[in-house]
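Re: the pair you flagged

First of the two:
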Amino acid sequence: MTGTDIIKPLLIGKSAKPRCFKGIKTYSLDYESNKKAWMTSALFEKWLSNFDKRNEFKEKKVLLLIDNCTAHNTKKKFNSIRVEFLPPNTTSQLQPMDQSIIQNFNILYRKEVIRKMVNDIDEGTSFSINL
């Protein structure tokens, strides 16, 4: 694994068509919506299925270590993904996402989006975010 295989982040919002995406033709994230902007079992299974298809196409095998959030429960078997759950009440000690990786990701992603928008404004082109 070289770290070059990058997947799109999943953003969950409340609006089916958010105003912040108005005028943007493409963006490098997957967007879903529901009433509370929370991860649900259905959304998680849909994301896992898409991830499985992508890895199956690339002929890769993946081990996913996931916390034991109730929305992450899945009984479905996948071809290229093996899902393992962390032991209960150990997420904050074991899961690196709780150690500011999410915050750093958000900062870097926003910086890249703004850089792209400024670049498009300078060149006089319409906003099309495809990072």
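Second of the two:
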Amino acid sequence: MVAYNRSQNNETFSQQVYMDKGKYYTFSAWVRVSEGSETTVSAVITTPGNSMRVIASGNAYPGCWTMLKGGFQPEFSLLTDLHFLCYNKTVEFWVDNVSLKEFNQTEWRVHQQRAIRRVRQRKILLQITDKLARPIRGVKVNIKFRKPVFHVGCGVTDTFVKYKKYQEWFLEKGFTASVFTNQMKWYWTESRQGIENYTIPDAMFQFFKDHGIAIRGHNVLWDKPNMNQLWLHAMTPKELLATAVRRLASVMARYFNDIFEWDVVNENLHFHFFEDKIGPQASGMFYHIAHVIDPNATLYLNEFNTLEIPGDIYASPHKYIKKFRDIRSYPGNENLTIGFGLQAHFPSGKPNMPYIRAVFDFLSETKMPIWLTEMDVQNTTNQAVYLEEIMREAFAHPGVEGMIVWAPWKPGANCTGLCLTDDNFKNTRAGDVVDKLMAEWKTPELNGKTNSKGLYKYYGFLGDYTVTLYDPYSLKQIIREIKITNKDQNPVLIPISI
């Protein structure tokens, strides 16, 4: 279909549809404009009161078709118009292959469960033989799951170094990753020009390193103007560039090879402090320097509203991939791995699960890693329910590699955000959800014996295992550490000679 002679953004085309409460509706369409440059377009539905809800946003281009992808889950049944907005009124707007598919809650959950089994679990075969490669029957096998490949972590604040019970609580939960909510940020480590203080982040860092907890580096630079110290604003472009490079070297070299992911330039879709001061390629240059300083770390973008708000046209998946490509176009960055950090700060109201899945699908087409980096849900009656839905959706998607629950604890704080514990370190309802899912996503302890072919078979989650074998004939006990990380779906054969 083609809309032409347009005088308003909403002069395109529409289709009336009926949506059932609680159903999941996935949406896609191919869009294009007749001329000019890229144009922002949105798919929207009208709700009672003639208000609009955006269900997908992206960019349309002349000369090629682009997929628009999203969805909606109505909280009440409604008759609505599905229509498009094209924000350039001077061009023809084209659309083709519009799809709106309906799923009930059972179908949605079954898809998740199948995806989890396909993406996160493998059939594992232990092949036990003697020194002459002959299979041994009847060997007793004990399998203990030690550490998952998929990270579930929790953000912490500076109170972490002051309260031993806070540290004990973190370790007892079994989190495999953490991030400092503020303590590694530039305004924390160098509030006064030229005077750096890493005392608190050093102490936090050392604790997690000593306990084998992966640490995300959040963040090196921040493109939001009011999150930069006043003395940075007064600098000339040349001075700011030199100072920013010094900051990169200071924090990244300090924790070299021990931070596994860095948010190099935070929120550079919504904001552009460094680009305005230094030039449009500032982010690309900073990612290049960051890779030189710490080549073993994965470098991330980190943005809000890409996952949470379909109507934020500044952070749509299309815009995010465009920023990713812009950074990789900087000389030397052509093959750089740049991950997509989705902050996942969900506002009040039900999260749009079909849209969340669409964002994961869209970003994963780049083959770059995806993390939920600051995940929280507003403290409402359904907070725990919504948190579980989001976590399950992320865990089921092959493109997502981990998530950080943004739930730092401070004593005496009135919890208005996401809190997993009270001041006595007793679970909230949200804490119960996180415990339940982390337990569900671990292989339980297993015991058995090898068969006549010397095989012991089981399904297990990807991760690290301790395998203890006891041969009743030779009276040998063997302990092996194994790691299952295979991304392909074939059974994993682990030969062990005793």
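The first strand starts at residue 2 and ends at 3.

-B.
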